Hints:
By secondary structure, this protein is mostly helical. The chain has eight helices and no strands. It starts with 12 loop residues before the first helix and ends with a helix.
Amino acid sequence: MPQPAEPTCPDEAPARALALLLAANGQLGPHEWQELERLRAFRRLGVSSARFRELLEHCSADVGASLCGRSWLRAAEADYVNAVLDAVTDEAARVLVLQLSMAVITADGRISRDERMVYLHGQARWGISPHRVMQAMVVDAAQG
């Protein structure tokens, strides 16, 4: 499994982490893409939608397909996922990534096993409680 390429700009680390979380099941459906747009995710992450699509394609090629259908991370996959997650050092950015990820992976009305696995891994890696993510989602919804 390749190590993730360093973001060309450290500010892309949150966008890359979100792309990884969303690439877990190997695909991003139209409902999920619409949710990203509705939440203004690209602007909030500081990347264009085209750049986010590139990051998503890279993550899908690197790790997405190998996760499909399993409920655990192999050591090489965990190293890759951890490297991407660890590049996000700002606590607020971590919460935003988890908040956006939760909204997007539930947009199609279901959460796949691989989406859940990688999301929960990120949450645990960063030490962010589900309550904190839900609070951020409620505040975001109230702000419209």
